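Incident log, support desk, overnight shift.

02:14 A customer reports that sequence design results differ from what the structure should imply. Their input is reproduced verbatim below. On-call engineer (initials T.W.) acknowledged and began investigating.
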């Protein structure tokens, strides 16, 4: 399933064709939303933002279309007048003078006023989005030290969307590796230097995945593999999905365990449990 960086990239693509432009035509597949087509028609889109795995398409009159791709949803951007091919079912279409953005297969779509978003049953439970909400290193440090989170093991905490929205399974393994921390540690077990390093990597690894379309491995480690003709799944990550392969930093074989019912990959040397 896509994680926060992938959804942010979708928001960026949609923003390029919708933001600042007038929506000349709106179509909803669901009868409950059809009355809102006329209300949004003729409005300008002010922004397209992501919050975790949700997308928020914001209009100048303060209405917001909330959509969640769930497992099968996907956005298609096409020249206006063209229709998406394939077996996916269209759920939403927003058309400018030149382009149409189609949401296919997703069913979690609703219309809100901006001031009501804090009452949304999903968004109200999310922590800040690392790529949308201007989160700083100091913000992450403070959140790690918050009483709600400081006693949680890192392997579980990083997947908790109450902590920060958008961190999924591959990001969890990569963040912990680059921070040099075993998943059993809790924030309260870390000294100030370790805590700040973890905060830095929460932001840096997430931003790297956004910039490079899901790639979290360092350039110095991935470039030789690319030049050698290795497939993307071999060089995309530093540890995730690399069980039994040598660590890029120390050559120790990467190990895989299950944490919170999800796969977690780590280097037993670089991330030794010294607790």
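02:41 Re-run completed on a clean worker. Output:
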């Amino acid at each position: 399933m896509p994680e926060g960086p992938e959804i942010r990239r979708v928001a960026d693509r949609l923003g390029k064709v919708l933001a600042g432009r007038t929506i000349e035509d709106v179509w909803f597949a669901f009868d409950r939303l059809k009355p809102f087509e006329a209300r949004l028609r003729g409005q300008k889109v002010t922004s397209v933002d992501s919050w975790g795995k949700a997308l928020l398409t914001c209009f100048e009159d303060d209405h917001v279309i909330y959509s969640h791709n769930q497992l099968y949803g996907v956005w298609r951007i096409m020249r206006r007048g063209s229709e998406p091919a394939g077996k996916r079912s269209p759920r939403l279409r927003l058309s400018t003078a030149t382009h149409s953005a189609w949401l296919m297969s997703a069913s979690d779509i609703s219309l809100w006023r901006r001031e009501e978003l804090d009452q949304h049953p999903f968004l109200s439970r999310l922590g800040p989005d690392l790529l949308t909400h201007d989160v700083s290193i100091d913000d992450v440090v403070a959140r790690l030290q918050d009483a709600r989170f400081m006693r949680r093991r890192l392997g579980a905490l990083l997947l908790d969307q109450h902590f920060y929205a958008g961190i999924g399974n591959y990001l969890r393994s990569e963040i912990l590796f680059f921070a040099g921390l075993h998943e059993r540690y809790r924030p309260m077990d870390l000294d100030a230097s370790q805590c700040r390093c973890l905060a830095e990597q929460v932001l840096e690894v997430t931003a790297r995945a956004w910039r490079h379309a899901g790639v979290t491995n360092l350039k110095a480690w991935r470039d030789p593999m690319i030049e050698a003709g290795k497939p993307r799944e071999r060089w995309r990550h530093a540890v995730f999905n690399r069980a039994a392969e040598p660590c890029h930093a120390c050559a120790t074989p990467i190990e895989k365990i299950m944490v919170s019912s999800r796969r977690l990959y780590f280097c037993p040397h670089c991330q030794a449990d010294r607790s």
